[in-house]
Specification:
The complex is a heterodimer of chains A (113) and B (110). Chain A is mostly beta strands and 113 residues long. Helices cover 0% and strands 53% of the residues of chain A. In chain B, strand 7 and strand 8 form a beta hairpin. Classes of the chains: A mainly beta (113), B mainly beta (110). Chains A and B meet through strand 5 and strand 10 of A and strand 5 and strand 9 of B.
């Protein structure tokens, strides 16, 4: 079974802090994604990566950056956390081929105070 | 832009009643994927449909892809409390673009 592991289930950070969210997958997937999920707004793509060191902006990249130094690991970075970044963050991975389903991690609920 | 409409947004049913959610697109889709997210959980892949008119079943769940490949439905027969959650449809465009519907939140009253 595919396992996508996010390092923290809950995080509380202060405004202005630099925040790292880590995600690791064990199925040798090429693609990795970061989404945020907010009530009434559905799933919104922040960034994705289709290979090591490759990254592409999603729909809402402002205020975020990512890092993919190894195939299995994809990190989301909030350079200076703000209260409007309080959200549920979901990491996902998939194979680099058409119609490959997404496998999600358990999510990180981030609160910025 | 690319989008897929999902209706209804919410549905409350009595346990034992049937439930259906619909996914509609203005353009022809290459595929449809369905995901379920339990309350407090993460989306979990259920199934994928790729052929025109395709119907697939998983126990009490029936998934259908329209003949024109512009719509899809998920039907649950005789709902149970374990069916509670939000059901999302999604389709892929290329090898790494996923377009999600807004989801249908199902509540089952015991």
């Amino acid at each position: 079974d595919v396992k996508v592991t996010q390092s923290s289930r809950y995080l509380v950070k202060r405004t202005g802090e630099k925040v790292f969210l880590e995600c690791v997958q064990d199925m040798d997937h090429e693609n990795m994604f970061w989404y945020r999920q907010d009530p009434g707004l559905g799933l919104r793509l922040i960034y994705f990566s289709y290979d090591v060191k490759m990254k592409e902006k999603g729909d809402i990249p402002e205020g975020y950056s990512v890092s993919r130094e190894k195939k299995e690991r994809f990190s989301l970075i909030l350079e200076s956390a703000s209260t409007n970044q309080t959200s549920m963050y979901l990491c996902a991975s998939s194979f680099l081929r058409s119609n490959s389903p997404l496998h999600f991690g358990n999510g990180t609920r981030l609160t910025v105070t | 832009g690319q989008q897929v409409m999902q209706i209804p947004q919410y549905q409350h049913v009595q346990e034992g009643e049937d439930f259906t959610t619909y996914c509609n697109s203005s353009t022809t889709l290459s595929n449809i994927q369905w995901y379920k997210q339990r309350p407090g959980g993460h989306p979990v892949f259920l199934i994928q449909l790729v052929k025109s008119g395709e119907v697939k079943k998983q126990k009490r769940l029936t998934f259908q892809f329209g003949e024109a490949k512009k719509n899809s439905s998920l039907h649950i027969t005789a709902t149970q409390t374990t069916d509670v959650g939000t059901y999302f449809c999604a389709y892929t465009s290329g090898t790494y673009k996923y377009i999600f519907g807004t989801g249908t939140r199902l509540k089952v009253l015991a």
